[in-house]
């Protein structure tokens, strides 16, 4: 396995591509002007957005392989591992790249919101594919930031640059919402498989050994990142994935409560609760009655 290299600074990011550093904390590169780079695996301390407008070599992002198609945006957060897995020595970068250090946004509104942009933790196979119109908006945003970087740094530089990055990320939220809609059939297929997995989980006896099912469990079963899976469920059902699972748990509990030969504690253990009082608390919160009162009422 190739050695993992640390990508620690904007200067390092630019230098590897043979391009000048105009600002120590942020860079926008037209990658057609970059020199070929050594294919390696690296862990980034930067936020990086790659916009690929051409097909490129197979890439591994986290645990996932991805073969780029045209007009694709890939988002990388600090701590992510990225690299090329095939026996490739030299790569010619293409498209555009926006990179910024977390220090750039400290103390800004973007710093408070950056965790809300879930796509920074999507897997690479969940990358954003943009239309021609969206591509033009992406390039406009990149060019605005690049244009600002070409001015001498002054007291206004940071706020203008950060505002434009935030504008770009907000556009990407819109584009992802569109992608969830245009991939409706694929998403519905994932939801059907999720529902099947959820039913199978409770019919298999797994709750008694593994406990309550988690959102992460089903995301991994469907080969999706946790955040992407959560966003998919929320957009298709209007409910967070955790709430969706809890509703299934409550429906199953209601059914079991009609069996008066089982105590409430036995039912709690069967469903996957480690402690019966946790079951009672959740049931009461969701239904408005305790399991005992629900049983006696029915």
UniProtKB/TrEMBL annotation:
SMART domains reported for this sequence: HTH_ARAC (SM00342)
Keyword annotations from UniProtKB, A to Z: DNA-binding, Transcription, Transcription regulation
The species this protein was found in: Flavobacterium gawalongense
Lineage of the organism: Bacteria, Pseudomonadati, Bacteroidota, Flavobacteriia, Flavobacteriales
A GO molecular-function descriptor: DNA-binding transcription factor activity
Coiled-coil features, chain-numbered ranges: none
Nucleotide-binding recorded as keyword: no
Name of the protein in its database record: Helix-turn-helix transcriptional regulator
UniProt-listed InterPro entries: Homeodomain-like_sf, HTH_AraC, Tscrpt_reg_AraC-type_HTH
Pfam families: HTH_18 (PF12833)
Start and end residues of each HTH araC/xylS-type domain: 192-297
């Amino acid at each position: 396995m190739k050695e993992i290299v640390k990508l620690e600074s904007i200067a390092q990011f630019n230098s590897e591509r043979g391009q000048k550093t105009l600002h120590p904390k942020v860079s926008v590169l037209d990658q057609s002007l970059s020199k070929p780079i050594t294919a390696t695996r690296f862990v980034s301390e930067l936020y990086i957005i790659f916009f690929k407008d051409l097909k490129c070599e197979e890439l591994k992002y986290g645990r996932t392989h991805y073969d780029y198609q045209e007009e694709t945006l890939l988002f990388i957060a600090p701590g992510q591992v990225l690299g090329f897995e095939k026996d490739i020595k030299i790569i010619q970068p293409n498209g555009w790249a926006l990179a910024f250090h977390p220090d750039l946004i400290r103390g800004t509104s973007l710093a408070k919101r950056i965790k809300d942009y879930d796509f920074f933790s999507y897997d690479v196979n969940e990358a954003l594919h943009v239309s021609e119109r969206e591509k033009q908006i992406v390039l406009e945003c990149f060019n605005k930031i690049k244009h600002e970087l070409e001015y001498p740094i002054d007291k206004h530089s940071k706020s203008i640059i950060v505002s434009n990055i935030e504008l770009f990320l907000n556009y990407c939220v819109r584009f992802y919402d569109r992608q969830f809609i245009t991939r409706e059939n694929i998403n519905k297929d994932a939801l059907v498989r999720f529902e099947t997995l959820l039913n199978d989980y409770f019919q298999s006896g797994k709750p008694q050994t593994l406990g309550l099912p988690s959102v992460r469990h089903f995301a991994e079963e469907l080969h999706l990142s946790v955040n992407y899976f959560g966003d998919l469920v929320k957009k298709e059902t209007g409910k967070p994935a955790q709430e969706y699972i809890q509703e299934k748990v409550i429906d199953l509990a209601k059914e079991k409560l009609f069996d008066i030969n089982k105590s409430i504690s036995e039912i709690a253990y069967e469903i996957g609760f480690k402690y019966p009082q946790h079951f009672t608390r959740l049931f009461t919160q969701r239904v408005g009655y305790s399991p005992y009162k629900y049983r006696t009422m029915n």
